[in-house]
Write a structure and sequence with these properties.
Blueprint: H1 4-12, H2 16-19, E1 35-49, E2 51-55, E3 58-62, E4 69-80, E5 88-94, H3 107-118, E6 122-126, H4 137-160, H5 162-165, E7 167-177, H6 179-189, E8 233-237, E9 255-260, E10 270-271, E11 288-289, H7 291-301, E12 305-310, E13 319-320, E14 327-328, H8 332-345, E15 357-359, E16 364-368, E17 375-381, E18 383-389, E19 394-399, E20 407-413, E21 423-426, E22 428-430, E23 442-445, E24 452-457, E25 465-471, E26 476-482, E27 490-494, E28 501-509, E29 513-520
Length: 521
């Protein structure tokens, strides 16, 4: 049996070194011990912003000043060290802070970005515009919408720069905590202009904030085609929506919700954020809907999702800030990455095709799982892989005549190298028909045939006889008993329902067994 290294070398050529001796269980376990960081990458420029008043670290927005300030947005990009796979999924992380504070270098965002990058993702922690009016629920919605536009701009950045960062433009995900989770959830469900909050349009003396993808860079690709800022999946840590009616059904992108029932800031059920501040004069925020009502609505309409409910984690459902040093809870990355694996990355079920019964005279056989996978890891016992075709994910195996066990196992991988379930086949040897020719016994015509086959007995035979049609594995496809061969002349065999290929007509009498080869077209 050839080594896996040889298999990879033949299948993938120069990229075999990327995969090393065995493919790791990418996305479900770490593939790297360290990450590389590219800080301060600009992804959106000249963005209209509101003027804000900073009081005790809280940025109060003056919505009438929209456009008076222009900002540039940046991200920090994380990649698994030493990884050169060119079709990786990417997760964009958005920090928390109630739309009035926070930054892309927040400790929990860095921890998330690093931990997911070690599993094989490209990750990014991004800027988005801050500043919220805390006294008017409708004006407060404008802050969420601006951040939604910025999150979509980050998605478009990776779609337009997929080759530069080795990402798959069809596997761009967005995530965040608290306000950042609002950005992520809204990306999933507020995806039509008709779903925009009314206050984001030019009403009541306020400026129109523009369309979902109408603000920021990378609005078109190099050919001038529009680029969508809607992500392919969402991870939400203590997030909520302004309306669950925006959840539509099975065609929504998959959303994983992590929320604690005792969250004092973003309600697990429904209500105003920061409800404990309701006694403060002037605080008036819109009602939002947390993990429980989002889950209920998604269940009702069949939208793909998962809800991970906690009870005592409070607002920091993902990150323990009560200890020094603070840390991500141990279940967050496995569950988040497992969700993305199940809903977006894992390959479909493979079907291994090829003969399970092999003639001793034809030990070399071809097996395949089809072309719909990015890669296949083949393992063989009791045989040798003599050829392989990466395009069709097929191999030719020369089986051993003396082996006790003959087994072929195929493990499929997606184009992002997410490992799928292995499929196997145990192969048995059998004594197949021996090809003998005897022109004086019988003849077959027409040969090749596309339908019926005539078997003409040409030799004087006596006694009972059997005419069988066998396939190349020795399986009897049809059989005719002749009580007295001397009285029989021509027999008709119908091959019209059989697939094209090689077959054998076998004549058996008490004295002899004679086989002739025929071809079905």
């Amino acid at each position: 049996m050839k080594s896996l290294i040889s298999t990879l070398s033949l299948l993938l050529g120069s990229t075999a070194s990327l995969l090393a001796q065995s493919l790791p269980d990418r996305y479900r376990s770490d593939i790297a011990t360290a990450v590389t960081v590219t800080p301060g990458v600009v992804f959106s420029t000249n963005i209209p912003q509101v003027s804000t008043t900073n009081l005790a670290g809280v940025r109060f927005a003056n919505e009438q000043t929209y456009g008076n300030v222009r900002v540039t947005l940046k991200m920090d990009i994380y990649q698994p060290q030493g990884d050169t796979l060119s079709k990786r999924p990417v997760i964009i992380f958005c920090f928390g802070g109630g739309f009035v504070g926070g930054s892309r270098d927040a400790a929990d965002m860095v921890a998330l970005a690093q931990s997911f990058a070690k599993r094989g993702y490209v990750t990014a922690s991004i800027d988005y515009r801050l500043g919220m009016n805390l006294s008017d629920p409708e004006k407060a919605k404008r802050a969420v919408y601006r951040a939604l536009q910025d999150g979509r701009a980050a998605v478009r950045f990776f779609r337009n720069n997929a080759r530069t960062y080795g990402v798959d433009p069809n596997q761009v995900y967005i995530s965040g905590h608290s306000a950042g989770a609002f950005v992520a959830c809204n990306n999933a469900y507020v995806d039509q202009e008709s779903e925009r909050p009314a206050s984001t349009f030019g009403v009541n003396g306020l400026a129109d904030l523009g369309t979902l993808d109408g603000i920021g860079d990378n609005q078109t690709d190099t050919a001038g085609n529009p680029v969508s800022g809607k992500a392919n999946a969402v991870l939400s840590f203590a997030g909520a929506l302004g309306s669950v009616n925006d959840i539509e059904g099975p065609n929504d992108v998959p959303v994983a919700l992590f929320h604690s029932v005792n969250d004092p800031i973003v309600p697990y059920y429904q209500g105003q954020p920061f409800s404990f501040l309701n006694f403060v004069p002037g605080i008036n925020l819109p009602v939002v809907y947390g993990g429980d009502p989002i889950n209920a609505r998604a269940n009702a309409v069949g939208a793909p999702h998962a809800l991970y409910t906690y009870y005592l984690r409070g607002h920091d459902v993902h990150y323990n800030r009560l200890t020094l040093p603070a840390y991500l809870y141990s279940d967050i990355v496995p569950q988040g990455s497992g969700f993305l694996y199940d809903f977006r990355l894992k390959p479909g079920a493979a079907i291994l095709t090829g003969p399970a019964t092999v003639c001793a005279s034809t030990l070399a056989q071809t097996y395949s799982i089809g072309a719909g996978f990015g890669y296949c890891d083949w393992q063989v016992a009791g045989g040798t892989i003599t050829a392989r075709d990466a395009a069709t994910n097929s191999v030719t195996v020369a089986w051993s005549e003396t082996a006790v066990i003959r087994r072929l196992t195929a493990t499929p991988y997606s184009r992002q190298l997410a490992r799928g379930a292995a499929v196997g086949l145990t192969v048995n040897l059998t004594d197949c028909p021996t090809l003998l020719t005897n022109a004086n016994a019988f003849s077959t015509y027409p040969n090749p045939t596309s339908g019926t086959l005539q078997v003409q007995l040409t030799e004087s035979l006596t006694g009972p006889a059997t005419i069988r049609l066998l396939d190349k594995l020795g399986t009897v496809r049809t059989s005719t008993e002749l009580p007295d061969a001397s009285a029989a002349s021509t027999q008709t065999l119908d091959l019209s329902a059989l697939p094209a290929g090689v077959y054998y007509v076998q004549l058996t009498t008490a004295q002899k067994v004679i086989t002739q080869r025929v071809q079905k077209e």
